[in-house]
Design goal:
The N terminus is likely disordered. The protein is globular and about 75 Å long. The protein is an alpha/beta fold. It has an eight-stranded mixed sheet with strand order 3-4-6-5-7-8-9-10, with helices on both faces. Strands 1-2 form a two-stranded antiparallel ribbon. The chain has a domain of 183 residues: Alpha/Beta hydrolase fold, catalytic domain (Rossmann fold). α5 crosses α6 and α8 packs across α12. 38% of the residues lie in helices and 11% in strands. Keywords: Glycoprotein, Hydrolase, Protease, Signal. This is Lysosomal Pro-X carboxypeptidase.
Amino acid sequence: MDTFILLSCLLIQCFLMIITPTMSQQSIPFEGPRLSAHPDFKSFSDHGIKASSTSTSSSNTKFRTYYYKQTLDHFNYRPDSFITFNHRYVIDFQYWGGAKTDAPIFVNLGAEAPLELDMKDPGFLHEQAPKLKALIVFIEHRYYGQSVPFGSRQEAFMNASRLGYFTSTQALADYAEVILHVKKMLMAERSPVVVFGASYGGMLASWFRLKYPHVAMGALASSAPILYFDDLVPADGGYYAVVSRDFKAVSQSCHNTIAQSWLEITELAKKPNGLQQLSRLFNTCSPLKSATVLKTDLISMYASAAQYNRAPVYRVNRICEAIDGAPKGTSVLEKVYAAVVAYDSGTNVSCYNIGGYSPPSETTKGWSWQRCSDMVMPIGQGRNATMFPYSPFDLQDFMNTCYSEYGVYPRPHWIVTEFDGHDIDLVLKKFGSNIIFSNGLKDPWSNGGVLHNISDSIVAVTTTEGSHCLDLLYSSSDDPIWVIKQRATEIEIIKGWIREYNLMHGIN
């Protein structure tokens, strides 16, 4: 039976938690590489040696927090459908030209985390808004942060009946209501709206443009793997294949050492006192109870390094430098431990807190449910395409695990039914418009992204060296020229949409 990697929030964004099979018959509670866009929410378990980060919201006095009385169920007329909850959103007025100027509204669609995380590094929005005198709105995703129905998170997560309202389609309808409310409240009905999102939020942004084109006239979807469903990504060509390719591009010998290490861990663990030897070798804070826990944490480290391999610290490079730079005669497992130390260099730790998982956060709890409802993304480790142990995605085992956890089975084909995917070029070319799909090809999620232009206005902006959601972060002196050009391309496309919108609506 497949098992599952416990991840503690991002993954990255994102980042970014996918329920992923690992190497043992013993189950480790949920999930897998998460979609999140911010490195503070790693795609995997918060790697034990890594110092944790805390999210902060801006102290700018022009940020104002509001609560909209949101409908629990947008699609039915049952008595409980009319329950409401306080839906949090934040507005940044500091750049806005005002309703009379018909200045645009930039809306960040919240993903699988509290609103504070979405606000932590909205660099692209804040750097481009002054140029267009845009209003910026951040909307929280239902069941996260303060936007929780039924009075409390404990009540909301009590059972599957209450969690049943926790879906991506309900969230999209939430966003539509809030955006229309904000425009009416500010008397800005004519102002064009562009939605933005990173990772899962990017998926929501692209879907929002398709579902509510009368509300948003354009969308920027950063690192949005909207095609990572059903059989759209080959079993051997998905997330972990890209991680492996990233390592191989830096160093073939590093890649080979990692690939060799799994068998050596397994073989050492089988020996008398083998787990004690592994514990000493990896300087673990507590004795290892199984080789699987060690393997799981190492897999999360390598994948997180690839997903967020960006300046000023390129962690794939750092890992490979540690492995390849080890003195002659260093064993494979000693090289791997050197990689662990290198990955976390600069953190004040005395031992490797392997398997030292903190209690599940609201993100891990929330995304676990979403993965067991409509966000069934089939990620596995292929036999020939990765440097990881063979562990294919098994849909039936996945569904059984979800049923065991929640008492309901997921709908594994719903997203493709709702938004298509198999004929996306043909379908979107005929009825879609004004979507930017941005991807860095070093990002493991890029294999599920749209990587080519579908039409003149549904365009792919890709960077060969880019990582997860890098384009939406604040610019930095460390930025390579290609990400500078990427951001410039994206804003020019958005300006073109706004000019066209203003022309069609008779706005000067």
